[in-house]
Amino acid sequence: MTSLIENFVKKVNFDSYEDFKDNFELKIPEGFNFGFDVVDKYAEIDPDKIALIWTNDEEKHTFTFADMKEYTNKAANLFKSYGIKKGDKVMLTLKNRYEFWFSIIALHKIGAVVIPATHMVKLHDIKFRIENANIKMIVSVEEDQLIPDFNQAEEELGINLTKLVINKDLDGWHNFTKEIEEMSSEFERPTGSEKTNNDDIMLIYFTSGTTGLPKMVEHDFLYPLGHITTAKYWHNVKENGLHHTAADTGWGKAVWGNLYGQWISGCSVFIYDYERFNPSRLLEEIESNKVTSFCAPPTIYRLLIKEDLSKYNFENLSYVTTAGEPLPYEVSRKFKEITGLRIKEGFGQTETTLAIATFIWLDAKPNSVGKPCPIFDIELLDAAGERADIGDEGEITVKTSGKGPHPGLFKGYYKNPEKTKEACYDDHYHCGDTAWIDEDGYYHFVGRNDDIIKSSGYRIGPYEVEDALISHEAVLNCAVTGYPDELRGQIVKATIMLTEGYEASEELKKEIQTHVKNVTAPYKYPRKIEFVDEIPETISGKIRRVEIRNKDINK
Questions:
Q1: Of 181, 193, 221, 462, which residue is most buried, by most CB within 10 angstroms?
Q2: pLDDT-above-70 percentage for the chain
């Protein structure tokens, strides 16, 4: 049994973070294509190696790399039979169905551009994506209003799309499940003008839209190599281990955690395709399938610690990570207390692969996302464009100058040069996120520039207040935002979901406010509290603070 990681890095094992930072270097093959150079290569050298273990609440399937080669070749032939060729845009709304893995790899082999999307898109979202991305084909599950909305979007736009649906016979749609079985399992690597090049666009992700309309983020065929550091040195995946990242395939985190870096590193992927998220069911699947490493957004860990974790056996689970938003210290502390596992944080965006992380050699520091990834030249810049001093806030940026490709860094925003220029200037990609660096070189995330609250001259990051709030036993989940105030400019507002057994009251508001004053600087306490049944979130688990702010402004 062997992994392919040595084909793509000059050195695999490192003694320390400093060794990793100074000496990690990718080997960039010419014409790299993940479908052929990873999936099919494993099928050649180790065909019985497990690639994917997939389950829902009714069935379970295990796919080897030989299986993956067969089905991705069949899918590639199916797509080609409908005219899909290099450069064509194909939208996948497949939830966590295993057909997503068949489809995305097949499209990589063809050289088509994959556009993953959440199954929760509505008519407006669908029309926006079809129009702006010039989509030619849809591959979808049947889910609620999804199929009727696709049909209506096609009619309103006056276009004809090729549409495939999973395991259904529907008017105007081809049955993917039936038709793939009729296809040949042989597919030759394209040559000539149809051959993929490293700088061809492979993948377009629509940003999650925490602020404004989503942008279309372009990644090239080297993007999978950028995730070697994600999987091997942050997720700490092991050869023949089993990794699970809790992520919908419509979100970039799905390929961060359930595809590229894991397979290159020789680790299998586990997928639990649930209809509705249930923390206890997820824990049962992690336990019964002997998952060895796990990653999830902080929102999921917030829910997990409310479960009775002591009744689960975590002897196979050896490593846990998180990204998406900063992890409240109380969540980290309680998870460690019960499971013995310290959650390691990381930071990245749709526009990047993992950029900053608590890598395997680093101790987890409270409220820190860790240190920079060596594939990027990270700089923290102040308002004048100068490097921020230790302890001072600045914007996280990625240096774009220098020789050679930048695997993992986006190519730009598709059909939007203005937005690209707004983000990429002065030889840097500007992430739009504020942080500060401590004396040990650890980055501490403050917040999105738009999320930082300015109250009576103070700059308050939402995460530090949420950290204090979540440590109160009555708070199940929360979001902190700035609320307009004539005297102070803004005041801190907390939108709170209560733990079962607690009821909203003025007395509870005062108790929570007092609690926050006692565990953090008193000026940060929420002067306004609203109790709600649900916190608005993106499909990736990020809180949509902009939705709360807009609602408050328009009251």
A1: 462
A2: 96
